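Structure tokens please, single chain.
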Amino acid sequence: MAIHQYAGYVAAVIHKTLGVLGTPQDAEELSSDAFVALWQNAEKLRDDSDLKYWLAVVARNAALKRRRKLKFEEPLEENFIADTPMEEPWEREERSRMVRQAVDGLEPVDKEVFLRHYFWRQTVVQIAGEMGKKPSAIKSRLARGREKLKKVLMKEDCLL
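Here you go.
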């Protein structure tokens, strides 16, 4: 009964949380896991009014865990550095280190916005909604972050 009633809702929560990082197989697996968890914890739920909320929390938490795992499978630097044809592996590693260091040097909020946009591939509107800010503020933070990174990387002679 719960699967028929809440499967679409659970899938929507998972899809929204995973964003572009998850595959349909990830979403299906996480949805199944949420209903298995429901089966295992059925006696702990007080009544049906808690069920929808409980499923949403379980699904969201599982999707966040999966998203963290997926986002770290691709190195951060791959999103910012273009390969040059004659580049030696040690040169690429050094450039990657400099980019990571420059991103880590951003203010925490700017770093979060920058990573959400360029690494997690979230739109400005998504970031603004999730962070409770206006899209114009997110655009400004992205512009400032790009400028700061450009200055740091130019200073380090690490051209993108």
